[in-house]
UniProtKB/TrEMBL annotation:
SUPFAM superfamilies: Periplasmic binding protein-like II, Winged helix' DNA-binding domain
PANTHER family: HTH-TYPE TRANSCRIPTIONAL REGULATOR ARGP, TRANSCRIPTIONAL REGULATOR
Coiled coil: none
Keyword terms of this UniProt record: DNA-binding, Transcription, Transcription regulation
Pfam families in alphabetical order: HTH_1, LysR_substrate
InterPro entries to which the protein is assigned, alphabetical: ArgP (IPR017685), LTTR (IPR050176), LysR_HTH_N (IPR000847), LysR_subst-bd (IPR005119), WH-like_DNA-bd_sf (IPR036388), WH_DNA-bd_sf (IPR036390)
UniProt-recorded name of the protein: LysR family transcriptional regulator ArgP
Family assignment from sequence similarity: Belongs to the LysR transcriptional regulatory family.
Source domain of life: Bacteria
Matching NCBIfam families: argP, PRK03635.1, PRK13348.1
Organism of provenance: Chromohalobacter canadensis
Stored PROSITE patterns: HTH_LYSR
Residues in HTH lysR-type domain copies: 2-58
Length: 302
């Protein structure tokens, strides 16, 4: 049988990013937490953590973290049904892309969290890599662009975010006075969210441009818009995020006939408990007010 004190130590060390912070969170000494991890590894006969160069779970550690995530959720359901067992704060750890967080996530989930008394622990990841957090056992659910779930999870199509190439009028005058020519695209600074963000590359390929281009890196959705407003570059921005700026003329659409729709999927553990199931139903019901409808082939994957 698994010793859940040892598993909790593993989960907290990974959640907190180190033994010292994990020990502080548990109210134990760092030595005591280290001993729990060593005891867990001794009982299992193999390591659950890689200590260097960066603390991370081993494949076995990831499987145990997945189990801990689901046990935490199921325990909370039991506490709701049997209050005499005690009280426990309900906290959902989720991975979400920055553009969703900057646009539709808060107005969609705010009422749910208030009614359910749920606290969120959000990890911001690009929509193309957020699923790795679930695979590593770090989160109970995630928003990503991948339709196929990891083992033990389900995926549901929420809809699509529409991105357009956006810049300030002054920037367009300086760099694209003769249109979006290949020579102009070769010289004009773009804005890219991060090294994993391929959206700008996809847009340029739509325009048959496959060469390198100068670009700023800005891992913030709000900062991305501010850079565009400052005339520092152009980039792919969700049209919902800049509706007011476009209406006021502070930003302009470089290419009104072209856009990229990025499909978003909600992934969650199959046996994640009542709260996670309720959040799933809520997202499927409310996201349509903010996202483009999912394509007909985007069916839930079990």
């Amino acid at each position: 049988m698994l010793d859940y004190k040892l598993l909790e130590a593993l989960a907290v060390v990974v959640d907190q990013g180190g033994f010292e912070r994990g020990a502080h969170h548990l109210g134990l000494t760092q030595s005591a937490v280290s001993q729990r991890i060593k005891l867990l590894e001794a009982r299992l006969g193999q390591p659950v953590l890689v200590r260097t160069p960066k603390l991370s779970p081993t494949p076995l550690g990831r499987r145990l973290l997945n189990h801990v995530q689901q046990v935490r959720l199921l325990e909370h359901d039991l506490l709701d049904k049997i209050p005499a067992l005690g009280e426990r704060e309900q906290r959902l750890r989720l991975a979400i892309n920055a553009d969703s967080l900057a646009t539709w996530w808060s107005p969609t989930t705010g009422d749910f969290c208030r009614r359910q008394g749920v606290l969120l622990d959000l990890i911001v990841e690009d929509q193309d890599v957020a699923l790795k957090r679930m695979r590593d056992g770090e989160v109970a659910g995630c928003i990503c662009a991948t339709p196929r779930p990891v083992q033990g999870a389900r995926a549901h199509a929420l809809g699509s975010m529409r991105y357009r190439a956006i810049a300030s009028p002054g920037y367009v005058s300086r760099h694209f006075s003769e249109g979006l020519t290949h020579d102009a695209l070769r010289k004009a600074p773009a804005i890219v969210f991060g090294p994993d963000d391929r959206l700008q590359h996809r847009y340029l390929e739509m325009r048959a441009y496959k060469e390198s281009f100068p670009h700023h890196l800005c891992p913030s959705s709000e900062g991305f818009v501010h850079l565009a407003l400052a005339g520092m570059g152009y980039g792919l921005i969700p049209e919902r995020q800049v509706e007011r700026e476009l209406r006021e003329g502070r930003l302009v659409d470089l290419d009104a006939d072209s856009y990229i729709d990025v499909p978003l999927y909600w992934h969650h553990w199959r046996h994640g408990g009542d709260t996670l199931d309720a959040l799933t139903a809520h997202l499927l019901d409310m996201s349509s007010a903010w996202l483009m409808p999912p394509s007909p082939e985007s069916q839930p994957l079990l």
